Amino acid sequence: MPETLTAAAFAPFGTVIETAGAASLPINDGTTTRFHALATAEPGPGGEAIVSIFRASQWPRPVTIRGLERHPLGSQAFFPLSAEDWLVVVAEGARPGAADLRLFRARGDQGVQYRPGVWHHPLLVLAERQDFLVIDRQGPGENLEQIAVEPGAVIESAEPGCPFVYANAKRCPGGIHRIKAYGVRGRGRQREVRKYRVWCTLKGDHAGILSSHEGKQRMEFYPDELPDELLDWAWDSGMVEY
What we know:
The chain has two domains: 153 residues, Ureidoglycolate hydrolase (Jelly Rolls), CATH 2.60.120; 66 residues, no CATH class. The protein is mainly β. Strands 1, 8, 9, 11 and 12 form a five-stranded mixed sheet that branches. The radius of gyration is 20 Å and the shape is globular. A hairpin with a 4-residue loop joins β3 and β4. The longest helix is centred in the C-terminal third of the chain and has 9 residues. It has three helices and 18 strands. Helix content is 8%, strand content 39%.
């Protein structure tokens, strides 16, 4: 399973971009909070920092890590533009192999900035599609290196399985990328939860063409309708919203 993304755990590879614990100040007559200097772009000699949007879609499942890339001349930052969790694969060393890979699960309000020269896998999203704001380098010089990872490493399951069952009794092959708890007033008080609403990596809320009310009911569950191990993992990983 993925590691939880924290500043300390990710320090060998770069910076975690998040508002939690960041320096902040009110601006614009108090109507805006500025979270200041969450990361510093490094465009390198002769380069300039540019802002782009990357639109990522899912890799074929199960995801197999067969290669890595790095950018020796500049940093590269990614920040999601929607609330879905996503995955970060990085590695240390001159020519890392499968045993050197680190897998992190980032929340939808967390981004990362890779330092120049850090080996990483291209974007890995859990939702069907997800946009990212990207700040990286434009300029002269060769700023992309790629290597194969031998043998490839398979990410068997980055998220628990979707609990939705179709009318033909087949279970949805997707995973869970978002859970919302109703009735709970804070972390550590799971016993207060009245219901959970779940979102699938493949079909969202499985509403299809149903009305919003009927669709919402399809993916709402009482606590005893979901496996204990799924709920324990979701709370421990910070996935549960409340």
